[in-house]
Amino acid sequence: MINERIVITGVGLTSPLGDNLNDFRTNLLEKKSGIVHTEIRHMGKVAAGLCRFDETKYQPKKMRKRGTRVGAISIYCANEALKDAGMDLNLYDKNRVGVYLGITEHGNVETENEIHDLYNSHNLDASFWSHHHNPRTVANNAAGEVTLNLGITGPHYTIGAACAAGNLGLIQGLQMLRLGEVDVALAGGVSESTETFGIFAAFKAQGALGHHDDPALATRPLDTERNGIVVSEGGAIYVLERLSDALKRNAKIYGEIIGYHSNSDATDFVLPNTERQIECMQSALKKAHLTTNDIDIVNMHATGTTQGDIQECEAIRKLFDDTNASINATKGFIGHAMGAAGALELAGNLPSFNDQLVHSCFGITNLDPQCAIKGLVVDQPIKKNVETILNNSFGMLGINSTLIIKKYHA
Q1: Per-residue pLDDT reduced to its tens digit, 80-116
Q2: In a 3-state reduction of DSSP, which class is residue 165?
Q3: How far apart are CA 274 and CA 309, in angstroms?
Q4: Which residues share a beta bridge with 10?
């Protein structure tokens, strides 16, 4: 075990609010919505958060045609992260570079598309089934496409952790650095969920698909009028390094990961468990050697579902009601980016260390009294000295994750 501080030195992302950290942050501070109406097969018009990055900026059209949407998202974000970090991988032993990406699900898009074509264009003739199907649908596809694109020969895999996956990708990267298995970790979360009608249909069947005539109001976490989740796509990948390596190359440092934890509710397929969420945050704080009074920003998971928001607010209230923490949430701006959610939402708050602003929530006109929390940033960004960020992401089947990031000080 290498007992060294782990720092973030690069961020690459695509989101419904921009394809780089600066644009994403600016649009959050200006309270812009990234949610639009789009047509989904078998569903008609639905609200969704869509990305508009250039899929072939870092790969030729031939490779994109062979690969997947989530692979394209991953390749774009990984290259952008390395560029942001000022890191040329050709100067590194690529056996010592690892790729760890959180995902919610994978393979649905390609399977749905091929079954659709099989029924509608090929009269159920299975000989038309794509010979690319298997590499497109294996769970490690997203991370694997990054290694193919960048020639990385170190370990790669995805972490299937539902909507907690973005945080888990970063946790895995940190752990592999501390174990000495790699010297550079490309870590975060990615999602192509808007490409599959099944996820929209499932949330609608659960009564949990957000909708509104104005797509910007289709998901309104913590508001009395909230009616569900808006499905979004996107990705955020970070360059993680041991502090000593970052200092050797005079890298800019966004922040230091000082605490983390993941646990399981073990109570329900879908409904969250307040006590387990509290325990997850407490364990992360213990690892960071902090108390709740030391936290400046708490980013909520806040999906926009009725019971989910209430349960999480209860957890936040019990821990932070007697502190000066500022509480915000991101999904009102961009929807729920599933496996990318935690990583994207952390990215949206990271610049607070420098600009000393805390972005607000979005879409709260009438705050649900059961979601009232001291420190909730509702209307506009607030000015504040920010030294620590606690980032929550929770997922189906009761998986919880918490990350704590600290402003870097030598």
Answers
A1: 999 999 999 999 999 999 999 999 999 999 999 889 9
A2: helix
A3: 10
A4: 239
Q: Rounded CA gap, 171 and 157, in Å?
A: 13
Which residue is listed with tokens 């600290």?
Answer: 406
- In Å, how far are 301, 337, 406 from 331, measured between CA atoms? 8, 8, 23
CB-side exposure of 16: number of CA atoms within 13 Å? 33
Instruction: Return the residue matching tokens 């170190």.
Output: 154
Q: Provide CATH 3.40.47.10 ranges for the chain.
A: 6-248, 260-406
- Measured distance CA(144)–CA(150) in Å, rounded: 10
What letter would DSSP give residue 249? Answer: T
Parallel/antiparallel/unpaired status of strands 388-395 and 399-406: antiparallel
3-state secondary structure of 156: strand
Closest C-alpha to 312, from 359, 363, 271, 264: 271
CATH topology of domain 6-248: Peroxisomal Thiolase; Chain A, domain 1 (3.40.47)
Cα–Cα distance measured from residue 272 to residue 69, given in angstroms and rounded to the nearest whole number: 30
Contact 371, 313 (CB under 8 A): yes
As a whole number of Å, the end-to-end CA separation of the chain is: 22
Q: State the DSSP string of 117-134.
A: HHHHTSTT-GGGS-TTHH
The model's confidence at residue 125, banded by pLDDT at 50, 70 and 90, is: confident
Torsion of the alpha carbons at 365, 199, 37 and 311, rounded to the nearest 10: 0
Q: Do 185 and 176 meet the contact criterion of CB atoms below 8 Å apart? A: yes
Record the tokens describing residue 137, joined without a space.
């649908």
CATH number of 260-406: 3.40.47.10
Distance CA 25, CA 20 (A): 9
pLDDT at 128 over 90: no
Tokens standing for residue 55: 């899929």
Cα angle 84, 90, 92 (rounded to 5 degrees) comes to 90
Report the phi/psi class of residue 107: left, alpha or beta, with left for phi > 0 and alpha for psi in -120 to 50: left
pTM reported for the whole predicted model:
0.98
